[in-house]
Request: fold
Amino acid sequence: MPIIEAENLSKVYPVAIKEPGLQGTINHFFHRTYRSVDAVKQVSFQIESGEVVGFLGANGAGKTTTLKMLTGLIHPSSGKVQVAGYTPFGRKTAFLQKITLVMGQKQQLIWDLPALDSLKINAAIYGISDREYKMRVGELTEMLSLQDKLKQPVRKLSLGERMKAEFLAALLHRPQVLFLDEPTLGLDVNAQVGVRDFLRDYNSKYGATILLTSHYMADITALCDRVLVIHQGQLVYDGGLKKLIDNFAPCREVKIELAHPIPEAKLLPYGEIKALDGQSVRFLVERDELTRSVAKMLAELEVVDLTVTDPPVEEIIGRVFNAGGVS
Ligand code: ATP
Reply:
């Protein structure tokens, strides 16, 4: 039986409209008018226990709204949702024990206190015994390589260490289902890799189910075999990551740093130029053409630095949407 089930899940936000100026404020006060924002439209999917699923979409596509409905923070306008056998917005204690929500741009740890103090509060809230608390903190500290960091005020931790400490706090009650909204946001590459490695280990050790949003394609490729793609509130793809990339991003992104700026016209033979800023150029190059094109760049241009990566998530999603989605 799936651990997460959404059926025709929709959310319409009423948004108050206010004209600018004093007259607008007075009108707003006495005769408030609203418009509707269809943030999520008829979204249906099922996730089995232990799966790690990527949830992709451009800014404003409806990812956070969906996660909020799945975790019971907001009521759906219509449709059904079940997580770990519960209807989330009932917010039963037993349900809250089974899930966690980590948002990269929000923090639960108290800024001026050592993380250990916040962890003790969490342990009390979740009714975790002293013995169990010590064991879990020890285990997670090791997995997250956070030794010695939990005793210093949170504000003195680096961003990456703070995010790891947030994970420790969010996982202390051993939830079965992890909802992660941009957990690597703003982290440097090393810290991103640390978080990814931890999530992979955590999933294999505890069999936890993970639904993850990220703007970093590397997070998704490292962790998820399956992805859901949402565009303007609608699910446009649910399937294998490999198929998505093969069908919609049969290209790689090549970034080069040149010794001197070169006119755009001279760069056209090397690939589709996505950005040109002085000496920095970002190309999209067909996968089949990659080796030949990179060799040509190195032979013919004065290249001082070159990196090859997957194109950004937004570009892939744009292609999926332009193609009208895939089944
Ligand atoms: P991002 O990647 O930028 O975080 P997202 O995919 O998480 O985007 P949501 O935050 O779910 O997108 O927003 C979906 C749509 O709903 C957007 O158009 C947004 O402006 C709107 N929206 C979100 N929250 C509210 C709210 N509380 N009231 C009104 N509209 C909202």
User: Anything to note?
Assistant: DSSP finds twelve helices and 13 strands in the chain. Residues 250-309 form a domain with the Alpha-Beta Plaits fold (CATH 3.30.70.980). The chain has two domains: 4-245, 250-309. The CA atoms of residues 58 and 314 lie 6 Å apart.
